[in-house]
């Protein structure tokens, strides 16, 4: 998950202890995960210490994309156009951070019969190969196809829920596996606690349920469950091939979880 503005290593074993500190943590992570830069100075907490802010960062990204979707639909724009512009808005908001990780991971893990060292070497190459291009193309097509059927209000709710849940599940691989590189983005995230991971995923699930329950009870239950399942299987599959996780593979897991969420939502929400 290559970024032009990587966080400097933050060394802190303490979690935020007040609302103001949690707000500061949210701004720090929003400054990293999006193109919106808050004046926060050097980060006080590594990601592992502030995992509960992740679903809120995701919901904010989903809100930006969802508003674009709802506005286009409100002016009688076709669903496919609203969906395409919403997907583009999310990419611009995040500077394609997770899409970059998806492409690099697909290039490294797509070919058969490679040693882990060779896979990691390919992932570090900034050039996109066949697997990366195909992964990005399919991802965009699937997202647009899932969103195109929704009304403006439904699309807004689905996008906020999908982005919140797909960020929340990033907590799992941080706990379950070790970073492959000792000095990469994955290592800088730190090692979370069981409680921190459960809280982050729980907040994401609750946010998604609240946003979707009015659109369909089964969607509100099954879409978050699908995102969690994909993150679990994806993190395990990746770790078996490269021995852990990297910043790129975290981005790929986020994208896979988002796609799973949107597919289930599209199947269980009528419009």
Automatic annotation (TrEMBL):
Pfam families: CobS. GO terms for molecular function: adenosylcobinamide-GDP ribazoletransferase activity; cobalamin 5'-phosphate synthase activity. One of its GO terms (cellular component) is plasma membrane. It catalyses: alpha-ribazole + adenosylcob(III)inamide-GDP = adenosylcob(III)alamin + GMP + H(+); alpha-ribazole 5'-phosphate + adenosylcob(III)inamide-GDP = adenosylcob(III)alamin 5'-phosphate + GMP + H(+). Keywords: Cell membrane, Cobalamin biosynthesis, Magnesium, Membrane, Transferase, Transmembrane, Transmembrane helix. It is an enzyme of class 2 (transferase). It is found in: Cell membrane. Coiled coil: none annotated. It is a multi-pass membrane protein. One of its GO terms (biological process) is cobalamin biosynthetic process. Its EC number is 2.7.8.26. Belongs to the CobS family. Joins adenosylcobinamide-GDP and alpha-ribazole to generate adenosylcobalamin (Ado-cobalamin). Also synthesizes adenosylcobalamin 5'-phosphate from adenosylcobinamide-GDP and alpha-ribazole 5'-phosphate. This is Adenosylcobinamide-GDP ribazoletransferase. The gene is cobS.
């Amino acid at each position: 998950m290559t970024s032009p503005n990587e966080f400097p290593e933050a060394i802190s074993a303490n979690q935020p202890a007040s609302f103001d500190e949690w707000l500061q943590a949210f701004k720090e992570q929003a400054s990293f995960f999006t193109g919106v830069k808050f004046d926060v100075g050097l980060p006080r907490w590594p990601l592992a210490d502030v995992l509960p802010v992740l679903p809120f960062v995701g919901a904010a990204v989903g809100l930006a994309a969802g508003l674009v979707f709802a506005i286009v639909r409100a002016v009688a724009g076709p669903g496919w156009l609203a969906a395409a512009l919403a997907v583009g808005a999310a990419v611009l908001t995040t500077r394609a951070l997770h899409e970059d990780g998806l492409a690099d991971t697909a290039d490294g893990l797509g070919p058969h019969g490679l040693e882990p060292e060779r896979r990691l070497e390919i992932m570090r190459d900034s050039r996109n190969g066949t697997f990366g291009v195909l992964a990005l193309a399919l991802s965009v097509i699937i997202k647009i196809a899932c969103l195109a059927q929704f009304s403006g209000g439904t699309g807004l709710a689905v996008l906020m829920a999908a982005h919140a849940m797909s960020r929340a599940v990033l907590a799992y691989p941080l706990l379950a596996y070790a970073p492959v590189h000792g000095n990469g983005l994955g290592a800088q995230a730190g090692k979370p606690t069981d409680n921190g991971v459960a809280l982050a995923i729980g907040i994401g699930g609750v946010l998604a349920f609240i946003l979707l329950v009015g659109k369909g009870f089964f969607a509100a239950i099954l879409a978050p469950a699908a995102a969690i399942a994909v993150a679990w299987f994806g993190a395990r599959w990746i770790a078996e091939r490269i021995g852990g996780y990297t910043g790129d593979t975290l981005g790929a897991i986020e994208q896979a979880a988002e796609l799973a969420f949107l597919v289930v939502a599209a199947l269980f929400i009528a419009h």
